[in-house]
Specification:
It contains 15 helices and 22 strands. By secondary structure, the chain is an alpha/beta fold. The protein has 2 domains: 302 residues, Alkaline Phosphatase, subunit A; 129 residues, no CATH class. Strands 1, 2, 5, 6, 7, 8, 9, 20, 21 and 22 form a 10-stranded mixed sheet that branches. Strand 3 and strand 4 form a beta hairpin. Helix 6 runs antiparallel to helix 7 and helix 6 packs parallel to helix 8.
Length: 507
């Protein structure tokens, strides 16, 4: 057992993309007894607020207490400021130090295992493991498995393997899905064993570990979930696959907590899940057909490889060829097409390439290289007009609005037009792939993209907290993401740094 002196140890267990609806439902049904115990003895609720306007960067904001309006991360592909070029971005490129970085030199020992989108910090007492079993650890371009001190990774590799790898396959057969399901359950068990092995190495004031298998399970087995399958379809081995992975994580949570003596405990997730399709190509169609984003004059005289390929090769062939490229080459191709595909001198607003949530940015003077929209009243008038026009879009199959929410960056983050962030975040109606959307003045069409998955993330996560320092409050109002990191530092008896934008919870 791990005793404590001045403050109880704080144990934070993350469930990556742990859906709050699933968690609450399965707690009520008795499937998640260890999460249920934390909820019943302390406080719990859903996370909310502007930090959840898009999935990418939620863990960064949650673990650092630093807002998107400061760190500027919103997607894996972002516009390079001062250009019309796109670049690949990960959390490792972002300057938003997590809460445990403030413990350097503070006589606190920390155990951090697979904190999403964060780097290792030298000088921090304890152990840090990065990208051993995370949702994106398959990507060698951005995520390298490592530890601090480095010798720990060598030890873990010998005992449990170099890394736990799970790659989603959205073109899989049923048999392949069964294999992924079994692998995820094994990975959860091994991850729990590894966590317990390190926990018993020392007495840690802060222990943080994130299970990523829930994220992969949500996407991979979404089509089998009872509410998503076709009417009359019978149960199969994967009907409750998502629930089974959550149950396996809950079991490991219980075993982990037995290693501590009366700790403060938090269970936290980044985002939830919803039945969604990649409708974001409608964002570009909206900007172009309503006259915001101007296409360049077509010329048959261009001899660039991209323009020649467009003229000579069918779209199906171009897509097939792009699949053979490295990710770096594909992203460069996307950037080239984006930059060359718009007449920037005649564009007032444009759509940044994305899959689900649409990002619209005003071509603002002084911010964009060929900006034509004046800052101030003209900028706000353009943004307001775009918002009004977006809400006019109708899904003709249902007769209902095609857009469920539109957020203006200057309003939700209370800031000036941002150097990095889009000016407008658009959330399309979930539940159906919309090939056609109607506006009073236009018809927007899109083709089924190569990346086609029927699930994405909702704008709520889950949070529960209990322990000797926490009042028993039960369910509370929605919790601002930025309030979580200050609360954790407060439980450790540490000052809250000025860089953190939130406030500690009243616990």
């Amino acid at each position: 057992m791990t005793p404590y002196k001045e403050h109880p140890p704080l144990v934070i267990i993350g469930i990556d993309a742990g859906d709050p609806v699933f968690i609450e439902e399965w707690v009520d049904q008795g499937h998640l007894p260890n999460i249920s115990s934390v909820m019943k003895t302390g406080l719990w609720g859903r996370t909310a607020g502007p930090e959840l306007v898009t999935e990418h960067g939620v863990w960064i904001s949650l673990l650092s207490g630093i807002s998107r309006s400061r760190h500027g991360y919103y997607y894996f592909r972002q516009l390079i400021p001062g250009t019309y070029d796109l670049k690949s971005v990960t959390g490792l490129d972002i300057d938003a130090p997590p809460l445990w970085s403030h413990l350097i030199g503070r006589n606190k020992k920390t155990l951090v295992i697979d904190a999403a989108d964060t780097r290792l910090y030298k000088g921090l007492a304890g152990i840090q493991i990065a990208n051993w079993a995370t949702h994106h650890n398959w990507d060698p371009y951005h995520f390298v498995t490592a530890s601090e001190p480095p010798s720990v990774m060598d030890e873990i590799s010998k005992e449990y393997g170099q890394k736990l790898l799970t790659v989603e396959n959205h073109h899989s057969t049923f048999e392949e899905d069964v294999e992924i399901y079994r692998k995820l359950l094994i990975n959860v068990r091994i991850k729990g064993e590894m966590c317990r092995y390190l926990i018993n190495r020392d007495k840690f004031d802060l222990s943080l570990m994130i299970f990523a298998e829930s994220h992969a399970a949500n996407h991979q087995f979404w089509k089998y979930h009872p509410k998503n399958r076709d009417i009359g379809e019978e149960d199969c081995e994967l009907t409750y696959a998502i629930r089974d992975v959550y149950k396996a994580i809950d079991t490991e949570i219980g075993l982990i907590l037995k290693q501590y003596d009366n700790p403060n405990i938090s269970i936290v997730s980044s985002v939830g899940m919803e039945d969604d399709f990649p409708n974001a190509a409608l964002g570009e169609a909206f900007c172009r057909q309503l006259g915001y984003q101007a296409s360049p004059e077509r010329s048959s005289n261009s001899f660039s490889p991209i323009d020649i390929a467009r003229r000579l090769l069918p779209e199906s062939v171009r897509i097939a060829l792009s699949k053979r490229m490295s990710r770096e080459k594909r992203e460069q191709l996307v950037s080239d097409i984006f930059r060359k595909g718009t007449d920037w001198d005649r564009t007032t607003a444009f759509s940044i390439p994305v899959s689900y949530t649409s990002f619209i940015r005003v071509n603002l003077k002084g911010r964009e290289p060929h900006g034509i929209v004046e800052p101030g009243s003209e900028y706000h008038a353009i943004v307001d007009r775009i918002v009004r026009e977006l809400y006019k879009l109708i899904d003709p199959a249902t007769g209902k609005p095609a857009v469920v929410s539109v957020n203006k960056t200057v309003e939700i983050f209370n800031c000036a037009p941002h150097e990095y962030l889009p000016d407008i975040f658009v959330e399309w109606k979930p539940g159906r792939f919309m090939e056609l959307v109607r506006h009073p003045d236009a018809e927007l069409r899109q083709k089924k993209p190569e990346f086609f998955r029927r699930s994405d993330h909702s704008s709520h996560g889950f949070f529960a907290l209990s322990g000797p320092s926490v009042k028993k409050c039960g369910k509370i109002d929605d919790i601002e993401v930025l309030d979580i990191a200050p609360t954790f530092l407060s439980l450790l008896g540490e000052p809250i740094p000025a860089v953190m934008a939130g406030n500690k919870l009243n616990i």
